[in-house]
Amino acid sequence: MPDKVKRNICLTIEYDGTNYCGWQVQNHSKSVSTSSPSIQATIESALRKILQEKIKLIASGRTDAGVHALGQVANFHTRSKLPLERIQKALNSLLSRDISIIKIEVVADDFHSRFSAKSKLYRYTILARPHHSAFLKNQVYFMPFPIDVLLMQKEARALLGRHNFKAFQATQKKERNPFKTIKRVKIVKSADLLTIDIEADGFLYNMVRNIVGTLVEIGRGRRAPGSLKKILLSKDRKLAGPNAPARGLALLKVKY
Fold first, then answer.
1. 3-class DSSP assignment, residue 215
2. Which of 28, 55, 193, 216 has the smallest number of Cβ neighbours within 10 A?
3. pLDDT tens string 69-122
4. 128 or 5, higher pLDDT
């Protein structure tokens, strides 16, 4: 059957990344445990059973082990004429409860989940109170220390715009283009939860978690005001804060 009859199907996916090695297994990374399945492989396996053909999912981006998503986007091409509603229902019946297909649609042939994206929005959540949560332990970064939210908000303004974010890139990853444009940074404290939303046209590996780790140190008074801007301009990862835990991070939305 000719390729022109293939449909390009787009999935919007919600998942709890706690029990997974990430969206895709990184075979070259010794830090990733191959004993845990990947989100991609799990969904592809279910699609093969439903559609009876080999499927390759293209995601908007790879999330690390333990990172969650409320709006991950992935597309695939298929010759199957099975109705979308049946594919979605079958997927959700086969997948475990920590992965859910919340939307399915046919998109243009040239749509690419990664390259067609205009921006991505991530949220990092911190539980800022003296005692931990038994229910949120896999979704938040527990912070039992006082933290200056107003100072964090002020410092975060330095991130807005197009910059070289090499200072917030994982040391083991060297991407060709470290320049990214951050469109929005929103830091809000509501009751015990502190959320940090960052929207950008792209992200370097571990960029959000490294930014959060630095902001937390600033909020705890471990760094002087103005530190974040200096770190950004230095392009030196050694000057930035620690990598915040993966469990507090979630991909909220991909914009096209």
1. helix
2. 28
3. 999 999 999 999 999 999 999 999 999 999 999 999 999 999 999 999 999 999
4. 128
Cβ atoms of residues 94 and 46 within 8 Å:
yes
CA 132 – CA 79 distance, rounded (Å): 49
Topology of the domain comprising 119-255: Alpha-Beta Plaits (3.30.70)
Residue 30's pLDDT is 46
Catalytic residue among 3, 16, 64, 197: 64
Greatest pairwise CA separation for the chain in angstroms? 64
Residues near 89 by Cβ (< 8 Å), separated by ≥ 6?
Answer: none
How far, in Å, CA of 156 to CA of 185, rounded?
7
pTM (2 decimals)?
Answer: 0.92
**Do 100 and 91 contact (CB within 8 A), yes or no?**
no
Respond yes or no: is residue 3 known to be catalytic.
no
> Quick check: helix, strand or coil at residue 184?
strand
Q: Which residues contact 236 (CB under 8 A, 6 or more apart)?
A: 166, 167
Same fold, 3-107 and 119-255: yes
Pick among 3.40.50.1110, 3.30.70.2740, 3.50.20.10, 3.30.70.580: CATH of 3-107: 3.30.70.580
